[in-house]
Amino acid sequence: MSTPGASVAASITGSVAGKRIGLLTASVSTLGGGVAEAVLSQAAIIRDMGAVPVIFALRDAKTDAQAARFANYETHLASRQGPAIFGYAKDMHKQMMQAECDVMHLHGIWMYPSRAGAVWAQRTGRLYIISPHGMLDPWIMARGRWKKALARRFYERSGWRRAAAFHALTSDEAQDIARETGAATIRTIPNPAPAARSHAADFPAPEVIFIGRIHPKKNLAALVAGWGQLSASDAGEARLTIAGWGDGGEVAALEKLVAAAPGNVRYIGPVHGAAKQELLARARFMALPSLSEGLPVAILEAWANGVPTLMSRACHLPEGFSSGAAADCGTQADSIAAALRRALALPPMEWRAMSGAATDLANGPFAASTTAQQWRTVYGALASGKLGA
């Protein structure tokens, strides 16, 4: 395994100018959640370094309506056949071969794109890298065991062996990758934060927000239960606003929880673009008591807007705790309630210090310029066929 600094020092790089770098994933619409956002962010990084990003994804229920999301990039969408859980698309491999990419970068695992990436590498003799995006986390591995066992046996294991390297978002994920795949070459590079800005308010109204996928791993039931433990004096005029998307069953379950919660809890559905920015601009804190994450883009978005966070250690962002940009809320309703009480009682001066620390993280270790230089090194090495362990 190697740290980002060691990656830069050890890699023998070539030029990436003009190289065609494939970004392979299951979904590039908002249904893809944080992985899709990471792919689009990666495409921007690749373009800025003078290379050509080429996106390959499965067509889903939202891709046609959301074509503007990826309109600036060469994008190939393949229609799915068969069970959605596997995502087989017979045209995907053909599209990949015709695109003549120099490097392929797989984002996410456990679906057909994993197989397509491995076959592409075998037939072209070119190098590819895999970003699991937290999908080898122990909490994730404990769910859907039969599906993962079949995928590992029939295509994942062979694809892992063929990959030139794995990409980890955090040092914790690097350990997960090494344990599950046995990979020797792992590059650790975080997701980049958006361009940082100071918070829109000097001391915003007491609104705590959640933005993200509505999924059991986000632990929203515990968040709502923890909020319910706040007394009238704890909460005052504060409110909890939950924004996000998910499948029908998960959203319905959340709506039922919110209906039974205090009146200062609301679910507003998905937010994107200007609506998301408006929500971040008025938030005092973002809460994310997750049970499992890769590296949550929502936290980076919050920090880039000067919004401190209440998060669990499963978010794998210890920099937030050490810098003072975040407070540990744990994953249980009691610990979440305690963190909310402390946060809502924080004096303006102390909140401003947390907000400034959040912006500093987005400007520093998670800045796009920092991660772009690391990716330039890795992609250059892959394109030249000289990526070392």
From TrEMBL:
Keyword vocabulary terms for this entry: Transferase
Organism: Allopontixanthobacter confluentis
Domain of life according to the entry: Bacteria
A Pfam family matched in the record: Glyco_trans_4_4
UniProt protein name: Glycosyltransferase
InterPro entries assigned to the protein according to its UniProt record, in alphabetical order: Glyco_trans_4-like_N, Glycosyltransferase_grp1
PANTHER family in the record: SULFOQUINOVOSYL TRANSFERASE SQD2
GO molecular function, a single term: hexosyltransferase activity
Keyword Methyltransferase: no
Gene3D superfamilies reported for this sequence: Glycogen Phosphorylase B
Record keyword Transmembrane present: no
All residue ranges annotated as the Glycosyltransferase subfamily 4-like N-terminal domain in the record: 33-191
